Amino acid sequence: MNNPGVGIAITGSGSATPAQAVANQALSTIVDTSDEWIADRTGIKSRHLASSGESLTELAAAAARSAIAAAGMTPADIDMIILATSTADDLFGSASAIQGRLGASKAVAFDLTAACSGFLFAMVTAAQFIRTGVYQNVVVIGADILSRWVDWSDRTTCVLFGDGAGAVVMQASMEGDRLLSFYLASDGTQNDCLQLPFGFQPHELLPQVSIAQGTYHPITMKGREVYRFAVSKVPEVIEKSLFRANLTTDQIDWLLLHQANQRILDAVADRLHIPSAKVLSNLAHYGNTSAASIPLALDEAVRSGKIQPGHIIAASGFGAGLTWGAAIFQWG
Ligand code: ACO
Predict the structure, then answer these.
(1) 158 lines ligand 1 (CB under 6 A)
(2) Any idea where the domains of the chain sit in the sequence?
(3) How many percent of the chain have pLDDT more than 70?
(4) 3-state secondary structure of 314
(5) How far is CA 149 from the centre of its chain?
(6) Tell me: the pLDDT tens digits for 22-68?
(7) What pairs with residue 46 in β-bridges?
(8) Whose CA is nearest to atom 13 of ligand 1?
(9) What is the value of pTM for the model shown?
(10) Which CATH superfamily is domain 7-179 in?
């Protein structure tokens, strides 16, 4: 099957966040920090944290359900579900559980992991299936519950993260291609900058047969290196994508970056000479929700009427791997 005339339309968005919100002030009762330090260095004021009663599957399914409804479709119309996450409920993957929960019976579903770049990588993956004519209606979800893997006694990381989910519906379109360009990249030589590693004890299973058993260890991060990586690579990848789309920065309606840190958002916008009024930011309320942050900010901007059909969005994800990428697309 190959149908190169098929384009992409992004027709609906949805999001979901856990019920509990935790303000900076409350965090200062468990680690040596302050609202002032966190807000000044990151722009974060509060974050939502999933309780033991809220699963990743449930949050992701709620976001997907809302995106499907916004696209004017039903779960039975969906051909494929891609879940970008680093924190699946099940290491075998959570996408199929979401498919079951939605009742999207004809959809094939799988997980994809590329940390905070995951949603962007998943969008581009979905686009390949649509452009070749294999699938017409794909749900792309970004969802993470990093609070499960944060060391809540480490003030250098615990203040940064929050939990959430966001989703979009991508559809085949014969009326032009609204995914205008993309560019993806990885650099494994810097893998140690951000990790959520498996930690194990060797276990002598049989004489001369040793295996490793354990669990994942909390997130470790070299904050300054990650900052430097983001402010140098993100403008570059957006410029490369704009070049591929034959566009200039002044033709962008919205800059939609992974919501890691307001200082990163400001520095990237500054380097690209994009005015702050065009920079989408919801960090203050949610913190860094990893794979969820781009679709969560997108959905809020669509529902508030900021993003209108036809608007051009430059999106960029970046994070562990290291991985990064950009996509230029037109909404609606
Ligand atoms: N509260 C109070 N003080 C703190 C806190 C805190 N939560 N965290 C660190 N400090 C202290 C440090 O101990 C240090 O104290 P010292 O000078 O006595 O040693 C001081 O503040 C400065 O620490 P730095 O790490 O140098 O602070 P910096 O200005 O670099 O800010 C930050 C840290 C916000 C993490 C910054 O490096 C950054 O934005 N990095 C980008 C990383 C990022 O956004 N990661 C998110 C996940 S990755 C991703 O999504 C791509």
Answers:
(1) no
(2) 7-179, 180-188+220-330
(3) 99
(4) strand
(5) 17
(6) 999 999 999 999 999 999 999 999 999 999 999 999 999 999 999 99
(7) 23
(8) 156
(9) 0.96
(10) Thiolase/Chalcone synthase (3.40.47.10)
